[in-house]
Predict the structure.
Amino acid sequence: MAYRETEKMRQRKAEARRRIVECTYECVAEGGFRSARITRIAGLAGVATGTIYRHFESREDLFAEIFRTATQKEVDKVAEALDTPGDATTRLENALRQFAERALRGPMMAWSLIAEPVDPKLEEERLVYRRAYAEHFERAIREGIAEGCIPDHDARQSSTCLVGAIAESLVGPLSPTLASQNSLTETDKNRLVDSIVRFCVQGLTGSRR
């Protein structure tokens, strides 16, 4: 008789997978991908290390799922900020501010997503999501051009520049090494966010806001 997996067993497997993903996410948020050891994840999830490899082919596959989950949350927040009232420039300001403020509130996870040296598989995921951010920005820039609040120019190139500018400007403040040496106060963080938003908006519109 062919083996048939029962509903109870499917639920048990799904629950184990959920715990593995949640515990891996917590480990990355605490110390980045490099500190997320399979043995520690297994211990936190209450499973054997072999169980992890029954759900994920490799450590890189597990990390790729965490990367996709975490980054999609941030992309969705940017999309929400771009869907608020106001002209395109105002909405872009909201989105840029959302991006930077959320990164500074969760610096280790943000560092892991933006700049931590990672395996090629995760680097590919990073490029996919940088493009996702750029597509949202591009749409808003095109709307701004149509509204007349943003000068006519290459919206696709500008959107890519926005993603690069905001990510690069956060690398230093988010870096675990530099952050431990130069702890930012809330005032410092607010100034940093304001500076990033101002720079990006001025680059898009050519005027001060």
The CA atoms of residues 119 and 171 lie 18 Å apart. The chain has a mean pLDDT of 92.
